[in-house]
């Protein structure tokens, strides 16, 4: 999405400057980058009325486009993991209260955005009229200069030339510039908050689902109750920590090692497999279709981390084997 946004922004600018200004492709791209980064060398500047009006808006939209693209890029990197975390909301917090607080914050932001936009627009309009009247600039040149100035690009092709113009600049440009920066910041905050709101809504929906039929579907052994092991595996799947493919592979490996097919893995069986392979590890394929394996360490008779029932227990059930494997995979 971020790439498409920037590509679209560049495409519009390139087409305009190539058609209206007659620049080559590299000149158009060069000018756009100089504008977006607010370098403003001044070696290339718009020369037509249409181009000046276009650039006045284009420079302002550029700040929003870059900011929005960065927000999309960086939040998408963490969004997937955030969706999987059920404890984003602290247990002491009421999810509905969090949602209400978020709505209140959004309202404040939107109100401030509207105020900043009105103030910024007012500065541009007043400046346009002032420089048209006192500096003798055309309305287009005045409008163009105000937008390029407030976006901090400043090509240098049009600038105040009288003492009245400089005084007006001193009084209006600093607050107008601050308003523009704050406007962009608040717009980006609103985008981020909307993403958080969407995440919160999905999490609330997930919690509601967990109270209903989905939990009962985790009853693998069909005894009409969900034990701790089944609940843990179900939650791990729900949170994306482990996939059904991973669990199927682990179960398949357990059956291969369980030579007597009694549903429990004696340490002797595990030792035999490890010695047979000349290793002290069991490989479990965990990346579907990739052909790559992860090695999960299970120690032999001398050290028995698979023991979870009691000190004298010398076997591990399928569930224990699965949980040990999942835990080991998570540490890789």
TrEMBL record:
Residue ranges of the TM segments: 57-78, 107-131
Residues of the EF-hand domain: 245-280
Keywords noted in UniProt: Calcium, Ion channel, Ion transport, Membrane, Transmembrane, Transmembrane helix, Transport
Cellular localisation: Membrane
Keyword Ion transport among UniProt keywords: yes
Record protein name field: EF-hand domain-containing protein
Primary site of residence: membrane
Domain of life: Eukaryota
UniProt cross-references to InterPro entries, sorted A to Z: 2pore_dom_K_chnl, EF-hand-dom_pair, EF_Hand_1_Ca_BS, EF_hand_dom, K_chnl_dom
Family matches, as PANTHER family: IP11374P, POTASSIUM CHANNEL, SUBFAMILY K
UniProt family annotation: Belongs to the two pore domain potassium channel (TC 1.A.1.7) family.
């Amino acid at each position: 999405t971020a790439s498409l946004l920037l590509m679209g922004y560049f495409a519009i600018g390139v087409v305009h400057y190539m058609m209206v200004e007659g620049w080559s492709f590299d000149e158009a791209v060069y000018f756009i980058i100089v504008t977006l980064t607010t370098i403003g060398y001044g070696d290339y500047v718009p020369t037509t009325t249409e181009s000046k009006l276009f650039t006045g808006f284009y420079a302002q939209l550029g700040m929003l486009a870059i900011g929005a693209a960065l927000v999309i890029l960086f939040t998408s990197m963490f969004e997937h993991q955030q969706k999987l975390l059920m404890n984003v909301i602290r247990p002491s917090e009421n999810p509905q209260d969090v949602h209400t607080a978020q709505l209140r914050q959004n309202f404040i932001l939107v109100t401030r955005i509207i105020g900043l936009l009105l103030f910024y627009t007012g500065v541009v309009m007043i400046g346009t009229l002032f420089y048209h009247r006192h500096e003798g600039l055309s309305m287009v040149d005045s409008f163009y200069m105000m937008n390029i100035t407030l976006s901090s690009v400043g090509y240098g092709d049009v600038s105040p030339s009288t003492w009245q113009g400089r005084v007006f600049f001193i009084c209006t440009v600093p607050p107008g510039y601050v308003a523009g920066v704050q406007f962009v910041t608040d717009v980006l905050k609103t985008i981020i908050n909307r993403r958080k709101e969407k995440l919160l809504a999905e999490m609330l929906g997930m919690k509601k689902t967990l109270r209903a039929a989905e939990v009962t579907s985790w009853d693998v052994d069909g005894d009409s109750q969900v034990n701790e092991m089944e609940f843990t595996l179900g939650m791990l799947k729900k949170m994306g920590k482990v996939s059904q493919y991973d669990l199927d592979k682990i179960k398949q490996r357990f059956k291969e090692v369980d030579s007597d097919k009694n549903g429990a893995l004696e340490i002797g069986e595990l030792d035999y497999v490890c010695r047979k392979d000349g290793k002290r590890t069991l490989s479990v394929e965990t990346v579907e279709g990739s052909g790559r394996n992860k090695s999960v360490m299970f120690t032999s008779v001398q050290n028995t981390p698979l023991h979870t029932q009691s000190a004298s227990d010398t076997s591990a059930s399928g569930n224990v084997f699965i949980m040990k494997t999942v835990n080991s995979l998570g540490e890789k």
